[in-house]
Every structure is written in C-alpha cells, then in structure tokens.
Amino acid sequence: MKIEHFVPQSNAERGHELRMVWSNLFGACLGSEGSPPREQHCDTRKGDRESPLSPLDPMLAERLRYSRGGQVESDAPGLADHLHDVLGLNVSKLVNNRKEVIVRMEQVAKQKAPQNAPYTWFEAQLAKLASNSKTELDPYVQAQEYWLRKHARGRRGRSMGR
Asked: What is the DSSP annotation of the chain?
C-alpha cells in the first residue's frame, strides 16, 4: 500500500500546498509497481495525472458494473476510458482475478440459492459483506457486491411476479 494524492504533487497550482493535507491523501494499492507499464494499474499507472474519481465517493459503485468476464465498465461519459486507459483497471491480471471471484459467486449461489430461492439469500450475503469487521476486505469485493446486487434485483422481480 502507498499514499496517493487526489491533487497530484506535480500540480503546479495546488500540489505543493496540498501534499500533506489529510483530505488530499488516501491509501492506494501498489498497482504492480515495477512491472511493465501495460501491466500497471491504479495509482502506479495513473502517475501524476489527476483523476475525476474518488474512492470516497459513495455513488462511485453505482456508476460501475462488472461483466461476467471480469471487466469493470461504465456508461458514464468518459469514465470507461478513464478506468481502462488511466487507471488500467482492465489489465489481464485484474480481469482474470475478478472473473474468478464472479465464477465462484455463481457456484456458491447454485449450491445455496437454487432457482426458486427468494432474493433474501442474496440480500443476506450483501449484509454479511457490509457487516464485515475485518480491517482488510476480501480482494475484488466490489465485484462480489455488484454480482449479488444484480442477482438480488432479478430475484426480487421474479418473486413479486414481475
């Protein structure tokens, strides 16, 4: 883990004055630091560029979706390009790991929530993720949450006769 700056230190106007301001700092993964640029992601790939995204934005998850193949996507204008080109969130390592998590979630759901199971099983799994008191979340928890929410909505509609 390393410290990232919302406003990069290289920003000529405000970077220097904000370099040690708490509200300008957050923790970021190492993003495959030391790997070839095409394999880097997150802050390492972003470098000194500013990002319009904040991991502190509670609405960010609503603007993202995860494909069954493990890609992170968005319909928000410019966001998909930023996720792919600037943050590198669709490098093969991340895509493969997300895909593995999604496939695992599908397997668990098939075993524990058969086709006729109500949406409450999915909501219970979401509640477990939300109440997780571990200091470190499971890898790719956002993809897990997305998958569970998507399937809970689908089951809710079927159980209500929609």
From this structure: -EEEESS-TT-TTTHHHHTT-GGGEEEE--TTTTS-GGG--HHHHHTT---S--TT-TTGGGG-EE-TTS-EE--STTHHHIIIIIS-TTSHHHHHHHHHHHHHHHHHHHHHS-TT--THHHHHHHHHHHT---SSPPTTHHHHHHHHHHHHHHHHHHHTT-
